[in-house]
Amino acid sequence: MKRIFVLLFMLTAVMFALAACSSSEEKTSGTGTDKTTADNKSTDKEKLIIGIDDKFAPMGFRDDKNEIVGFDIDLARAAAEHMGVEAEFQPIDWKTKEAELISGRIDLIWNGYTITDERKEKVLFTKPYLENAQAVMILKESSIKELKDLAGKEVGLQSQSSAADALNENPINKEIKTVTEFGDNVLALTDLKTGRVDAVIIDSVVAEYYMTKEPDTFKLLDESLAPEQYGVGVKPGNEALLEKLQAALDKMNEDGTSAEISTKWFGEDKVLK
């Protein structure tokens, strides 16, 4: 009798264990489904992390209250609103901007980002939204009048910027005494004011902004080095985000949002349609 009781107990224990395993598998299966759903939802971002150079006025910079402001900042916020997401701005080292994007630490490069053939091999670009050129900024009292006068002079520019490409493509680069690269344009212009460099190669939209702030300090040469266009950089393979962003930018052109932002910062509508 005792033996029968033991056998019945063991049989009951086995059945209970099997039932528990079955229940566990169902829960695991259910959890897996929930995880897949969560992963799918995570592809629809609620926030876009936008990499910027926070010393690139008037595109993106810090104001007197240390708040990030600028033309590109307003444009990005408006685009994010059209997309139904939030824009968060992440200051980055401009020298590593593509690495930041490809690693996924940021979703977009959006701060006076010039479209070049070399960059097209690394990132996806929106359609151009603003014209620009690389200009030569000098002090008001400078004896430099033309590009050829840069021969034997010391020139500054922002590291890993399109200014370096523009200068390298111009024959005058072989006659320049030295080229000094700076972390940002603010540092380059500081050295220009103190005489440590004779000229700075800089985006014309940036140069024009600083000339309005210090009209008695700077001037530009009539000749520019290279015309160029700004675009927004998107991580390769993320065509879905690129399409959504471009649709938002197109809509902003249609409804007048981009024109309003441009007029605020430049006094006129300069956005490419």
Automatic annotation (TrEMBL):
Keyword Translocase included in the entry's annotation: no
- Per the UniProt entry, the signal peptide is 1-19
Which terms are listed as keywords in the entry? Lipoprotein, Palmitate, Signal
Q: Which SUPFAM superfamilies match?
A: Periplasmic binding protein-like II (SSF53850)
List locations, semicolon-separated.
Answer: Cell envelope
Q: Which residues form the Solute-binding protein family 3/N-terminal domain?
A: 47-269
Q: Could you identify this protein by its name?
A: Transporter substrate-binding domain-containing protein
